[in-house]
Amino acid sequence: MTDLAAVKAALRTQAVETPSWAYGNSGTRFKVFAQEGVPRTPQEKLEDAAKVHEFTGVAPTVALHIPWDRVDDFGALAKFADDHGLKLGAINSNTFQDDDYRLGSVCHPDAAVRRKALDHLLECVDIMDATGSADLKLWFADGTNYPGQDDLSARQDRLAEALAAVYARLGDGQRMLLEYKFFEPAFYATDVPDWGTAYAHCLKLGPKAQVVVDTGHHAPGTNIEFIVATLLREGKLGAFDFNSRFYADDDLMVGAADPFQLFRIMYEVIRGGGFTADVAFMLDQCHNIEAKIPAIIRSVMNVQEATAKALLVDRDALAAAQRAGDVLEANAVVMDAYNTDVRPLLRELREEQGLAPDPIAAYRSSGWQERIVAERVGGRQAGWGA
Amino acid sequence: MTDLAAVKAALRTQAVETPSWAYGNSGTRFKVFAQEGVPRTPQEKLEDAAKVHEFTGVAPTVALHIPWDRVDDFGALAKFADDHGLKLGAINSNTFQDDDYRLGSVCHPDAAVRRKALDHLLECVDIMDATGSADLKLWFADGTNYPGQDDLSARQDRLAEALAAVYARLGDGQRMLLEYKFFEPAFYATDVPDWGTAYAHCLKLGPKAQVVVDTGHHAPGTNIEFIVATLLREGKLGAFDFNSRFYADDDLMVGAADPFQLFRIMYEVIRGGGFTADVAFMLDQCHNIEAKIPAIIRSVMNVQEATAKALLVDRDALAAAQRAGDVLEANAVVMDAYNTDVRPLLRELREEQGLAPDPIAAYRSSGWQERIVAERVGGRQAGWGA
Amino acid sequence: MTDLAAVKAALRTQAVETPSWAYGNSGTRFKVFAQEGVPRTPQEKLEDAAKVHEFTGVAPTVALHIPWDRVDDFGALAKFADDHGLKLGAINSNTFQDDDYRLGSVCHPDAAVRRKALDHLLECVDIMDATGSADLKLWFADGTNYPGQDDLSARQDRLAEALAAVYARLGDGQRMLLEYKFFEPAFYATDVPDWGTAYAHCLKLGPKAQVVVDTGHHAPGTNIEFIVATLLREGKLGAFDFNSRFYADDDLMVGAADPFQLFRIMYEVIRGGGFTADVAFMLDQCHNIEAKIPAIIRSVMNVQEATAKALLVDRDALAAAQRAGDVLEANAVVMDAYNTDVRPLLRELREEQGLAPDPIAAYRSSGWQERIVAERVGGRQAGWGA
Amino acid sequence: MTDLAAVKAALRTQAVETPSWAYGNSGTRFKVFAQEGVPRTPQEKLEDAAKVHEFTGVAPTVALHIPWDRVDDFGALAKFADDHGLKLGAINSNTFQDDDYRLGSVCHPDAAVRRKALDHLLECVDIMDATGSADLKLWFADGTNYPGQDDLSARQDRLAEALAAVYARLGDGQRMLLEYKFFEPAFYATDVPDWGTAYAHCLKLGPKAQVVVDTGHHAPGTNIEFIVATLLREGKLGAFDFNSRFYADDDLMVGAADPFQLFRIMYEVIRGGGFTADVAFMLDQCHNIEAKIPAIIRSVMNVQEATAKALLVDRDALAAAQRAGDVLEANAVVMDAYNTDVRPLLRELREEQGLAPDPIAAYRSSGWQERIVAERVGGRQAGWGA
């Protein structure tokens, strides 16, 4: 029997970090469709993020991306966030948009390019010091497009060297989160293609280095919740980059493509102690064609709904069925939780917290969208451009 | 026993069409790395294409992409091509880079957007009339990102309507080539996702409508040569868009990722009568990080090498082994051709045609690259931008 | 607003066909694990199927597989079914378990083998005449393992010839249902690998030939509901073989791997008119490690739940959002139906029909499992063996 | 410039281990096609393996599979091998064909089953002591078919416990080689699904534990040579199970599906020092439809040809191009080696070693096939049956 009060208590502790760049324009290699009302500055992104938190109650932090969110005074930006009820979250580095990075950044054959990339990573730690961010999130677009283009193993050596230098720079309470990605933008080999590679590097670096699981960064058919369970078992799961995909790194709203998978992932997080531990739940999405703020609200709600379902799993009944080798009953226990409609529970929870029960409707009737469309005219809309 | 003279004779008839856009800049959604010496105009693209043909002898036509290659006077452009030893090839439409096309073009729910897209397609036929191009190549980025976003079947109705209107506009000797693509830029459903969908539309349209096989547009594990054989058997194979990929639509140099697959495809083309029939062999690639002109020369050579190997298959021995049910021997006959090093044969062929035996070396020593780097300064480099 | 009475009325018409072979033993190439109580005869399979229908109310027909279900008197078997409240459904041919079929059946290079296979197919139509079955379901294991092993196109010619001969033999009210499969047991090329190939053959054969969609027979990432919509639009969707998979043709319980996909498929069936038309909903599963009868009951219920959710989609609201180009709202309408817990509705429906609200519990307390375990001792358990 | 004498010298040191089970019957879940002349005993398998070594000169060892190759006196079997010019190679355990293993072996929820499985693994080490085999190769079919069926993390604990017990039993000069597999026969989660999981276990066990890369055990699109390079860099690559596949674990002849991939793998082996180190090159294939002995000869030759090509890579020229960031030139250096026809070199090498230049032809004219077909009549043909 599941204890509903405990489920609600757990849900009250949940926090989903939204990424500053999801509020700006994004697209595919074919086209970036601009949307009205998109922020022009890091501050405007934070204003939008504050709305997401206002209506969901579970999105209190915002990840920054450097240089997209570079400001002169990061302390002031942290204060701005604080004034809007937010904290600044992970600092995300960018070593893929400078012309020098055509053949890689920290894995580049040229030491000068590697040095430039490393300097950027170290700068990101400086920014963490200024913002009070605990996490440095590293994703490298490094890789090769053609067999032979570069030496796969030498690139690992260069990567290890850069990571060690950054690791040495981390202060107390700061972590390095290393992300892996199956492919794109490199097409033959990426330098951190899978969790095993990220894990092996983090293991050598030490306890402050952990792995990021981006749910869109795997080969077709990969059992992501197995990886989650394994990394938790090894103490090396640092964070999620949530999004969903049908094919590659589609970066759609989390839960949109395979909500059952999201539920299974959240179940393993909870089962493995990751829900109460230091695992960060971040979104990393691109709202290429849909309205951005409501899409982010929906995504946060999708994580919340999957979490609620995972919390509802009757773990005693499950353990009993597993011990008995009753395949159908064990599966049925899990499916029973998944098939439950948790939306009434979450509406109730929101009302208990003084929130509107339907965050999307509340946002739509708040007038914010109309206001930003009217006010954010001129200037340069935020996007992936450096 | 294979007749080497016949192989050479067949190779002399080969023609590979290069795409104007491969000479310009391209990239991923993360970054477009600009290269020095890249063309600024359609004319400069043709100058580069002329070099590819000059050194390979088998790249006599160039595909255009509208609006990227829009000029005031297409007749003059055709004349320019002719003066450079080239002909203008397929006209490629673009209904994906206008803000109106956020939710599709000919499949868009709004009739006004559909009309705009159709007008563009009809304009492309006008351009064909002016350039003397025989082929209209249609690839639609249309699709949906989220379940429910639009009605899958209604979109097919709209697509069929637009195709019928374009088909009706085709003149004598003009074809419509319909391309399919598994995913990207749409992530949930593309409106022409597979050869079956393209085939079903072409069948209803009539004999002037045929299917384009882009070798990068399939689900993982798809047996492309089977599709080639099937479309040839049905009389519906119109053209190839050649490129290679490890994962998705990587658009790498054809033959770079899986040269054995390219050989198998060319074998089915030859076996199915496609080599002598009206099948167009086009490249559609992105040279994001490698030098563009030599990459295109290499790609043309890769097609040539795969063709030579496919022509070398001892078809009598193969048929005998197949009839006898000798799996190993039949496979060995095919592998024997594939394992042959055909580069000496092709060097010999080039010399017989008055060409340098090594096109890459010849290009490198020609001074062209240095010249365009020096001369093409200023202006706006060609790329995918509308 | 969805009309609940109409939803219930539609659900009352639903029929899911269970396959005789799912009641017998099955396994992987590594091991077939025998289970206690498994049927030894076609009659015992029908007894089990009768239980599934008794407790679910929506499984009134049973598919046979020849020769696994060969009996001396098929008329008597039909009578036996009738006496147990069932009808005999589709006749499934088997041209893959005779030593002669090592290199194929109707596509085999040797005409004698092809003739033998054809004779078997024609015998299956004879059986249909005896059982009153309307559907001949054809799945061919034909294909090749190595490039060059056989001529891909010649095999299509042989296939077409056999299909034409069988088609000519069909009587009034009889259909040929042609199944496609991406791979397995052939590994290089299967002779009917995709819906396009099956469609092209059926189109030439005529209106009695239609395509079977087995939900486990696609390349990774394939959008199955798109195929469903397309085949319905073309009038060529004949039947489903339902099951679920994470990787290949796993043949797990339908709805177990991706329940959201099953819902999307059922939505397209309903939207395309397939729910009221002559589309047969069959299971084709292997219960390798779980108890067979309750697994089949669960599978039938999963189809029913997905159907109920699909019927709940507010199609007016959906159409309005689609017309308006409101991506998030259109998706939300679909997700709202999917997120609904339909189990109370289905329990209510069962009670209205005089059934127990929980079919699994009812089966478990019926004593049937204990009885068959006790009684079905000795003899040869049914399985895939010829 | 590549030193041909050094290439030949390296090739002379090559050894490929053939698996005893590849000489017996195998098949898919649909059918095992028996072949004439197939061995009935471990001794007859060794006789066939001796022929493969006789004609290729590079297949001096044979892997055993327990219990398929169980004999009363393993010392005598080793002597029998020795008398036929062979050594016994790796001992392969089997914990998947007993009815007790329906829900797993060392990961089973029931401690009694785990104990039984562990006892089998320990028995395999006993056999190693008797045969003088250095390698214990462990592949576990363990996994789950349905979400919730068992606890993913608890299964890892059980696995770790069993591996530790086996590891403790290993003598000097004995290794444990742990194999991973993406899926099959388990369909939801396999307990060692990827190299990262195998690596993490081996790391904890110690230096005698290393990872086996089976080339057919990966997700679609996985860059296998990257894994090879990484494991070599970490000192954890123990062995290969070579085979090839188009889709899943097809177990076709190595080099048959993607010879370029095999070449790239061999290049990374050589580059990473694996060719001279203790990496075992084993075949693990199923010759379901083709003649077994010549298929194995062909497979050995395919490995040899890929090795020769990889040895031919001009590593100085490659390193120079890589350092210069010349993508096309670096790729060209690799492709130049791959495109070389190494068959004349290998024929020459064989003749220098007193072998026939064409092993397949030599086998065919040796009369062995006719002899075993004639003599091996009656008895029970070897296969996967326990």
TrEMBL record, chains A, B, C, D:
Classification via InterPro entries: L-rhamnose_isomerase, Rhamnose_iso-rel, Xyl_isomerase-like_sf, Xyl_isomerase-like_TIM-brl
SUPFAM superfamilies per record: Xylose isomerase-like (SSF51658)
Xref: Pfam families: AP_endonuc_2
Signal peptide limits: none
Record bears the keyword Isomerase: yes
Keywords: Isomerase, Manganese, Metal-binding
EC nos: 5.3.1.14
GO MF: L-rhamnose isomerase activity
Protein name per Swiss-Prot or TrEMBL: L-rhamnose isomerase
Native species: Streptomyces hokutonensis
Encoding gene (name): rhaI
